């Protein structure tokens, strides 16, 4: 089993892929380690959110994804 990471919007461009499969469990530090430096730099910014199991985390550094979970990396949303 593994954790699926989804890169959305501009984060997909930085990662160079739509998704990645990594061994679980996965915590915040593990996430930063596997997504690459450019994506990790973006994730550290307050305006970028992380969702796990379909729910946006109030505190993304509290991430704990288990085998079979999906983690979505959500760039800031603009619009009007």
From TrEMBL:
SUPFAM superfamilies in the cross-refs: MoaD/ThiS
InterPro entries: Beta-grasp_dom_sf (IPR012675), Mopterin_synth/thiamin_S_b (IPR016155), ThiS/MoaD-like (IPR003749)
Protein name: MoaD/ThiS family protein
Organism field: Qipengyuania gaetbuli
């Amino acid at each position: 089993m593994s954790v699926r990471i989804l890169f959305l919007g501009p984060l997909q461009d930085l990662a160079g892929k739509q998704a990645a499969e990594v061994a679980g469990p996965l915590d915040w530090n593990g996430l930063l380690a596997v997504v690459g430096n450019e994506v990790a730099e973006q994730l550290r910014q307050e305006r970028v959110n992380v969702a796990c199991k379909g729910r946006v985390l109030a505190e993304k550094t509290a991430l704990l994804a288990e085998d079979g979970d999906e983690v979505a990396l959500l760039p800031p949303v603009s619009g009007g």
